[in-house]
Amino acid sequence: MRTAICERLGIEFPLFAFSHCRDVVAAVTNAGGFGVLGAIAYSPDQLDAELTWIDERVGGRPYGVDVLVPGKVDASALDQRAHLMDFIPGRHRDFVTHLLSKYGVGAAAQPMTAVADEFGRRVTAAGATGLIDVALKHRIGLIASALGPPPPEMVARARKAGVPVAALVGTVEHACRQVAAGADLIVAQGTEAGGHTGEISTMVLVPQVVDAVAPVPVLAAGGIASGRQMAAAMALGADGVWCGSVWLTTEEAETPPAVKRKFLAASSLDTVRSRSRTGKPARQLRSAWTDEWDSSQESPGPLGMPLQLLVAEGAMARIAAAAEKGEPGAVDLVNYYVGQVVGQLDQVKPARHVVYDLVSEFGEAVERLKRLSG
Amino acid sequence: MRTAICERLGIEFPLFAFSHCRDVVAAVTNAGGFGVLGAIAYSPDQLDAELTWIDERVGGRPYGVDVLVPGKVDASALDQRAHLMDFIPGRHRDFVTHLLSKYGVGAAAQPMTAVADEFGRRVTAAGATGLIDVALKHRIGLIASALGPPPPEMVARARKAGVPVAALVGTVEHACRQVAAGADLIVAQGTEAGGHTGEISTMVLVPQVVDAVAPVPVLAAGGIASGRQMAAAMALGADGVWCGSVWLTTEEAETPPAVKRKFLAASSLDTVRSRSRTGKPARQLRSAWTDEWDSSQESPGPLGMPLQLLVAEGAMARIAAAAEKGEPGAVDLVNYYVGQVVGQLDQVKPARHVVYDLVSEFGEAVERLKRLSG
User: Fold this and answer.
1) Residue A313 CB: number of other CB atoms within 10 A?
2) Chain B residue with minimum CA distance to A272
3) Chain A interface, mutation test: which of B201, B208, B234, B245, most A Cβ atoms within 10 Å?
4) Is the pLDDT of residue B306 over 90?
5) Is the pLDDT assigned to residue B338 strictly greater than 80?
6) Which pLDDT belongs to residue A134?
7) Is residue A79 part of a domain?
8) What is the spatial distance between Cα A185 and Cα A191, in angstroms, rounded to a whole number?
């Protein structure tokens, strides 16, 4: 399996693995795919340490880094003189307190103001640039930008370093805007994907994006966790696939055990696109958290990004810890971003086995198509 | 391209065309695919006339009939002694009057009580059975049941006549239930499809259904309007594809001209899953009709099926007529069922050209996959 993107990045198989877990990134890269580390969880210093860890394990094989640069953020996040926590309205704080009490989790520790500022501002263009500077000091093969078009400084710095820039999109219009802004590779992500996602399905979106941005290569994302799905994505015209959810139930994944158990038991009906974790629509496991924010009468409705992210992360850290102790209310509330493929994930495997199984089933799917078409 | 379903039904290419238009059914069947006539719009006598018309044109080539049998209907529809129109609350009638006045369409003619009863009851098991009896007098090769599991009488009559039964599903659970009820062929329909549809995308749904019901053959539906999308569906494990939206902009289609123009101009973001036309979630072009029912403050919310169908059809016939005269309010309101592929539909072609283009692009997509996989 050789596509243009395999040649360009020097990989055996055009399978991109998005993960917040360095172990998954290294395992997929070492298995012949291309690991991409989600950098949002890290400060610049932490990211530096993670990338050094990966560098030491992949023997020069290529991997990438993904930052989150939303096109629009809550204006308060741009005011460097103010503290982000000060912009969270009282009724949102009260609702979180009410939820934690109702589900028996106890009062949430408010995140410390300085930590919140640093974390919240990481999802702004300025914040992302700090992470990119760190990333470019390592031997990375790709920088990806989720949500907004890559900021001009990001493209310029990546170009200078000879590193291609990828951008995630959910519409044809955004794909064209990303290419105009300098993206070298487009990830067309369908609504079935986990995390921030649009409304158009992978089946419909990918061919339209491929035609609109040609000859820029396109990876398909959303709904891809098996070799048949990868073959389908390539039949749609994609040059490769970008998978996220499938790694969350691997042995290496950082997924909290209580969430992993919920993922393994879930069906494809158990996800929801909700603004309750970040302020923007993000597909995640449906739980009491999403139900309460999206449908309960007391809900003040989610804030914008990054304020809702601060509200949710502060509470969710506490909830996840309580869920690990088996507290039933916390188990009801706990969730995480995941796509509709969660219904296919029913066993825990090492990440490299996921790669091998995907490659092998991909071959079978292509053989079947050859046979059928005579 | 020969799959098991091609052998069983005696067709050249496993492309199923769902249409309410006999011209499309005959054209696709004559081009080597398999036309399926949606029977819901017809009384038993009308259906008889339509099928006779098709029989005279397809020279014995196979085609099918689709009836709508919801698993659950509003109980009032089952009471044969009452008039259905009597169950429509005053505030729903008032809201329709308000909408038509607001958009300058004038008062809607209320459908005649007897017509409404006949139409509304066609979507019950008893109503569907009447249509099936007519269909089985013709040389049909397939009976399809949308929404609910096929009623036992339907399966028994079709079996006796040697006609396979197909069933549309949106979840794995429903697929298993349909097979248990006697379905010979499953149509796994993703959320991106037009008309009544679930929440799971085609990319995610199809492989799960294929695995769950094997060796029963599965057709993929939703998001398929080109050869690349057909190749993708087959890569997912489908035995063929079931397309609906792509015929709506053909020369033969019965689509009202004002709606056809809106379809040709629409993007894939312009559809919505709404209960405002039938009482069940159905994907359709977003218009002032769906916006008003789903989001306006005055909206009483849609009724169940079939009552909302009566409310909507009565008004929509009037709206479509006014839209044809170019009345701007009516053009804002008018819509029709269509899938997210509407964004790909930008020219009017004869239905047989759609078939030829699909077959030809399918071949190219398989060739590309062969080349890439070496």
Assistant:
1) 19
2) B199
3) B201
4) no
5) yes
6) 92
7) no
8) 19
Residues A260 and A247 in one domain: no
ipTM for this model? 0.94
Top residue of A203, A364, A366 to mutate, by most chain B CBs within 10 Å, is A203
Chain B residues near residue A203 by CB distance under 8 angstroms: 190, 192, 201-203, 222-224, 229, 232-233
Same domain, A190 and A319: no
Interchain CB distance below 8 Å, A374 and B223: no
Residue B30 belongs to some domain of the structure: yes
Q: Any idea which residue has 């690991």 for tokens?
A: A35
Comparing B224 with A127, the larger pLDDT belongs to B224
Residue type, position B6, single letter? C
Q: A72 with A288: CB under 8 angstroms? A: no
Distance from the Cα of B105 to chain A's closest Cα (Å) equals: 32
Tens-place pLDDT, residues B269-295 = 999 999 999 999 999 999 999 999 999
Query: At residue B117, what is the residue type?
Result: D
What's phi and psi for A345, nearest 5 deg?
Answer: -90, 105
Closest CA to A203 of B178, B193, B324: B193
Identify whether residues B88 and B166 lie together within a single domain. Answer: no
- pTM, to two decimals: 0.94
Q: Are residues B148 and B44 in the same domain?
A: yes
Q: Do B366 and A363 touch (CB under 8 A)?
A: no
Do residues B304 and B70 touch, judged by C-beta distance below 8 A? no
Domain that holds residue A279: 87-115+256-335
Whether residue B92 has pLDDT greater than 80: yes
Task: Show residues of chain A in contact with B190, CB under 8 Å.
Answer: 201, 203
B274, with CB counted inside 10 A (0-12, 13-18, 19+), is buried
Mean of pLDDT values over B15-35 = 97
Which of A173, A208, A369 is opposite residue B235, by nearest beta carbon? Answer: A369
Q: Which residue of A has its CA nearest to B1?
A: A373
Q: Is residue B155 part of a domain?
A: yes
Which residue ranges in chain A fall short of pLDDT 50?
none
- Comparing CB atoms, the residue among B203, B368, B369 nearest residue A201 is B203
Each residue of B143-165: pLDDT tens digit? 998 777 777 878 888 999 999 99
Number of domains in chain B: 2
Choose among B236, B267, B343: nearest Cβ to A232: B236
